[in-house]
From TrEMBL:
It comes from the Bacteria. Residues 2-98 form the CRM domain. InterPro entries: RNA-binding_CRM, RNA-binding_domain, RNA-binding_YhbY, YhbY-like_sf. This is Ribosome assembly RNA-binding protein YhbY. Keywords: RNA-binding. GO terms for molecular function: RNA binding. NCBIfam families: RNA_bind_YhbY.
Length: 104
């Protein structure tokens, strides 16, 4: 797991700026199955957004704590009800963004 510095977080925020949320948190809330799906998506993409829907009982701070406590995924930024997530891929050929981050 990469410990992110300020410049690295800024780079990741810039990379995620034009992205649309890939996952949603809805009525089911935060589950282990949902977290497993996040982890497999991190292995493919390394960086994406998650939106908390209006019908969800989950607060942004709860989601951030749940994700960071139960996985190696880091929350880079929260914007309203959207979280920007980053994690290093376990598959070497998918480490495009993390390779850039380590060079900053």
């Amino acid at each position: 797991m990469i410990t992110l510095r300020g410049k690295q977080k800024r780079f990741l925020r810039a990379e995620a700026h034009t992205m649309r949320p890939l996952f949603n948190i809805g009525k089911q809330g935060l589950t282990e199955n949902w977290l497993d799906q996040l982890a497999s998506a991190i292995d493919k993409r390394e960086l994406f957004k998650v939106a908390i829907l209006q019908n969800s009982d989950v607060e942004v701070s709860e989601a951030k704590e749940f994700i960071e406590t139960n996985s190696d995924i880091q929350v880079v930024q929260t914007i309203g009800h959207t979280l920007v997530l980053f994690g290093e891929s376990s598959e070497f050929e998918n480490r495009k963004i993390s390779a850039q981050v380590q060079n900053i």
